[in-house]
Amino acid sequence: MKSSVVSKLTFSTIPVDAGLHAATGMSLEDIVETVRESGLRGRGGGAFSVGRKWEVARGVRSDRKYVICNAAEGEPGSFKDRAILSGYAPLVFEGMTIAALAVGATRGIIYLRAEYAYMLGHLESVLAARRKAGLLGKQVAGNPRFNFDIRIQIGEGAYVCGQETALIEFLEGHRGEPRNRPPYPAVSGYRGAPTVVHNVETWAWVTCVMAKGAKWFHDLGTPKSPGMKLFSVSGDCSRPGVYEFQLGLSVAELLRVVGGEDAQGVQVGGASGRMVPRSQFGRKIAYEDLPYGGAVIILGENRDMLEVAHNYLKFFTSESCGQCTPCREGTRKLLDGVERLRNGRCSSAYLDQLISLGESIQAASKCGLGQSSPQAFLSIVAHYRGKLMGRKLVDDAR
Amino acid sequence: MTHGNFDRRRVPVSQRLMSAEATANSDGNLVTVTMDGREIKVTPGTTLLEAAARLGIHIPTLCTHPDLCVVGNCRVCMVEVDGTDALQAACATPVTEPVTVRTYSGKIRRVRRHMLQLLLAHHDGECHSCSRNGACELAELSEAYGVTEVGFARNRESRVFDNSSSLLVRNMNKCVLCRRCVRACIDMQEVGVMEAVGKGEQIEIETFGKKNMAEVVCIGCGQCISHCPTAALVNPDDTDKVWQAIDNPDRHVVLQLSPSVRVALWEMLGMAPGTDDVGPLVHMLRAAGFNAVFDGQQAAALIIAEQARLLSAIICEGLAHPEKDRWPVLSANCSGWVKYMEHFAPAMLKHMSPLKSPEQLLGTLVRTHYARHYGGEPSAVVSVASAPCASRKFEAESPLNTQFGEKSVDYVLTTVELGKMLKESGIGLSRMPAGKFDGLICTNAAVSFTPGNSMVHQLCGAVFELVTGTPISKKVKIEYTSPFGISGAYIMNVPIQGVNDATGKNKNGNGDGGGQKGMQLRFGKCEGTANAKRVIEDIRNGGPFSRCHFIEFLACPDGCFGGGGHPAPTSSGIRQMRREAFPVSYALAEPEAAWIGEIHAQCQNGTLDEMTTLDAFYTSYMPRGKFMK
Ligand SMILES: Cc1cc2nc3c(=O)[nH]c(=O)nc-3n(C[C@H](O)[C@H](O)[C@H](O)COP(=O)(O)O)c2cc1C
Ligand code: SF4
Ligand code: SF4
Ligand code: SF4
Ligand code: FES
């Protein structure tokens, strides 16, 4: 994937350690309160309130607490975390340090996607520099009661390991499989201790919020989805790359900026997102309308939507962790259905049955993977049904 | 007190429920659950499934099993919880705040059916020719919850079929990936033979290194089998071999009926767990074609007599005895436990009692004595044992268990297999006259034992009598201690007033502990290999169990009543009902004791016959380590 364009990022305007400096001057409650007031939501997909998560972790009494940076970036078409880690790693580590201070954690772990292991040297040197500067290790930032350090653990190829509880299982040395929730990691996560997990980008925004204030962030974006967000834009457009947009922009606006006006559809949120057809390009990318992931994939006029669905389902049948019935077996059935459609051997009645199955998969799956994997299929079938069914005539008898 | 490994088990964190104490803000207050319009107050951490059960609301489940930790992976138990879009798995959702739940709606019905249909599409549904026909949980659920067609394309790949082992047969084409077996083996038994391997559509339940069952450390407890909802894991079936012997008029087929089988067999015939009506059973078995049916307890009693002789000799001779460093003596009557020790603690095999298992001893007596005296050709005798688990099959095949080059036991039938034979023979249950066990030692009349399965209790009584010269009575106050606070592993401390010397005179001063007041016999009992692991640790560390004279170990939770060769389903309630069919007793009734004493003495002094001496009682063990060759 070529990422030729990286738009000017807010991250480049944040003075070094301004966030941590601001945080050390506050009471711990105020740090959490600032983050909560900013309205920052997680940038890893779940979009849960960051402040709320910290509040929970802070409220649990435990002598061990952890913060984790989720650098699994497994979503096909997402490469923004890579850009952040290579360009703004100090912001990420600073954000983790701020959270550690606020919730009372002493250890930080970075789960680094195996494919990003080439960055290990760079990241270790940033960590070493911060240790030297007294920003990690014992008595961080001159605070006699604050000890905190970060280590990096190289991950595994599995997409599902990006799911926070599967990630924790993996870090503990088990099969990377999602846990039952509750308890959520903020209550009982890594080694049973309260654990705050955030996406790479979220950590960087934490630092920005602390450096520039809650109001600055909250005034950007929309009231329900404040602030900015990075997008990895790829597919049929003239200027693919990593972009920073305020949340709430419309799909059409995004397409204009990246040079993708001719799209017949846009997959918002990567493989686990949904296909937005041309007729809905006026919709807003924001928590309250089109939930965002990191990846935006633009499908031009000549793309075969069935192939797109096939691609994604193929991905999910092999990337499902395989523990729960709907995700493991259900996506296989959807894939089989797409193959039938491809061969003109899927009746309308069977397609309806698959749509109903897709909804069951979403309702019954144990983790976000299965809960979202049918989305691409369902949205493609909903918007392009005529085109898909018209490929070959079949009778309804199946 | 809990049995032990059911709450001390290692619970993988992915499968751990929120415990009540981990619940944020749980201050011991009760939380209200409103379910299908009815209310109940529960302690935080209670699952929706448990809350439903208390309201008498039935929620179907598949992966959940009362013995095992929760995984929440089948998604059959989905319910609607107000405030969430997705359905929630009732088995894996703890109550942390007041909730309103619906267990029945169109959406739930649809999802449930879809889950079952998806599992069926992955399942080799040869239902009418399946060994679990009539007892398959997947089939029951499908029938009960409206599935009349698979509805979706079937998965076409073919998966592992492995019948390399005499301990269990795996047919992964019938596996629905509920992972009960994994949890039974890793978490409940802490043996760890099977695990889920691979992900996505490639996932399968596999042994370590994808080895054949015959090459792994499986101890044959069968817990995975009796916890499997389908026929993906089954006991190897030797019924045809036994039928063949029965059908051959030149063969004389004898069966030993072991105590736990005689109770659980009724479940195969549709009766409630805990039924013990041995008379009709013996009659039915004879009618089915067995030429003689022996009470397995005879052999158990003989072993106890010999074990008591050995133990009391060491105890009476006190510290001077050369075998003193082998304390505690560990029982070897459970073949699953023996194999466990051979794999996991080979260095401690010197502690193992050198005595055979009851099945093997009885088989030996059949070969040496019975075959020569029953009135027919000795080589015509076919020796069949019934057993609560398939580990007895492995034991019977072991070269360590031959007698003059012959296997002591030709075939072992688990309860499931024996039940299958009874059913197939078409013998009705109604109006069965009561039959009597055959006499093993032909010079004697048949002896029918009062059931009293607990080896350690009877041994305790026998050793007490040999050591003190007086029979144990109710006046002896036995004190029970459970060092780990669980009922699955305990110690009986039996006070004694001095010991007899070799001449039978009470020395009162020279034996173990010096004969002063406060002298004790200490017997341990441990059920389940997870508990056993801790007891072994304790012995190594010089803990309370290391000071026992003797410890009885049984590999399965609740001992042989929980054997994996009994029919599914199993649960602690079912095992308890089976156990309660047998009262605990410290001593044999008068006629039995006299009979055992006589035969034991005859074996000792060689007067029974020239082949049946005490040698017939002894066996040896093989250090195996973590792999089978
Ligand atoms: C299948 C699956 C894959 C995920 N992969 C990632 C990932 O690669 N990176 C990530 O940051 N979050 C991923 N998540 C979301 C995480 O579970 C979690 O919500 C996130 O790390 C929390 O961080 P946030 O608060 O910054 O969003 C994934 C979730 C699911 C269900
Ligand atoms: S939804 Fe898929 S990835 Fe998630 S737990 Fe179930 S099988 Fe695993
Ligand atoms: S028989 Fe027992 S030891 Fe063997 S795999 Fe099953 S549970 Fe594990
Ligand atoms: S073998 Fe049986 S118990 Fe094990 S996962 Fe398969 S169906 Fe479940
Ligand atoms: S019984 Fe609840 S998910 Fe299987």
Q: List unreliable stretches of 5+ residues of chain A.
A: 393-398
Spatial order of strands in the largest sheet of chain B: 2-1-5-3-4
Helix content of chain A: 40-55%
- CATH 2nd-level architecture of the largest domain in chain A: 3-Layer(aba) Sandwich
Instruction: Report the bound ligands by name, code or SMILES.
Output: flavin mononucleotide, iron/sulfur cluster, FE2/S2 (inorganic) cluster
Q: Which sequence of SSEs, written as H and E, runs from N to C of chain A?
A: EHHHEHEHEHEHHEEHEEEHHHHH
Greatest interface: A-B, 48 and 49 residues
**Terminal-residue CA separation of chain A:** 40 Å
Tell the overall outline of chain A: globular
User: Strand share of the residues of chain B?
Assistant: 5-15%
Identify the CATH class of the largest domain in chain A. Answer: Alpha Beta
Radius of gyration of chain B: 26 Å
Number of domains of chain A: 3
Number of strands of chain B: 21
Q: What name is given to the CATH topology of the largest domain in chain A?
A: Rossmann fold
What summary fits the major beta sheet of chain B?
A: 5 strands, mixed
Question: What can you see in these coordinates?
Answer:
The complex is a heterodimer of chains A (398) and B (629). Chain A is of the alpha/beta class. Chain A folds into 3 domains: 10-218, Rossmann fold (3-Layer(aba) Sandwich); 228-299, Roll (Ubiquitin-like (UB roll)), CATH 3.10.20; 305-394, Up-down Bundle (de novo design (two linked rop proteins)), CATH 1.20.1440. In chain A, 43% of the residues lie in helices and 13% in strands. Chain A contains 14 helices and 10 strands. In chain A, the strands form 2 sheets. In chain A, strands 1-7-6-10-8-9 form a 6-stranded mixed sheet. Chain A has a 4-stranded parallel sheet with strand order 4-3-2-5, sandwiched between helices. In chain A, helix 2 runs antiparallel to helix 3 (50-59). The model of chain A is unreliable at 393-398 (pLDDT under 50). Chain B is α/β, with parallel strands linked by helices and 629 residues long. Chain B contains 18 helices and 21 strands. Chain B has helices at 5-8, 48-55, 106-121, 137-144, 180-188, 223-227, 239-247, 259-268, 278-288, 297-317, 335-344, 358-373, 391-397, 415-425, 455-468, 529-540, 572-580, 590-605, and strands spanning 31-35, 38-42, 78-81, 88-89, 99-102, 161-162, 169-171, 194-197, 204-207, 233-234, 252-257, 292-295, 329-330, 381-387, 402-403, 406-407, 411-414, 479-481, 489-495, 520-527, 550-554. In chain B, the strands form 6 sheets. Chain B has a 5-stranded mixed sheet, with helices on both faces. Chain B has a 5-stranded mixed sheet with strand order 13-21-20-19-18, with helices on both faces. Residues 1-26 and 508-516 of chain B have low confidence and may be disordered. At the A-B interface, helix 6, helix 10, helix 11 and helix 12 of A face helix 3 of B. The structure holds flavin mononucleotide, iron/sulfur cluster (3 copies) and FE2/S2 (inorganic) cluster. Flavin mononucleotide (FMN) binds at residues 42-46, 48, 70, 72-75, 159-160, 162-164, 197-199, 202, 367-369 of chain A.
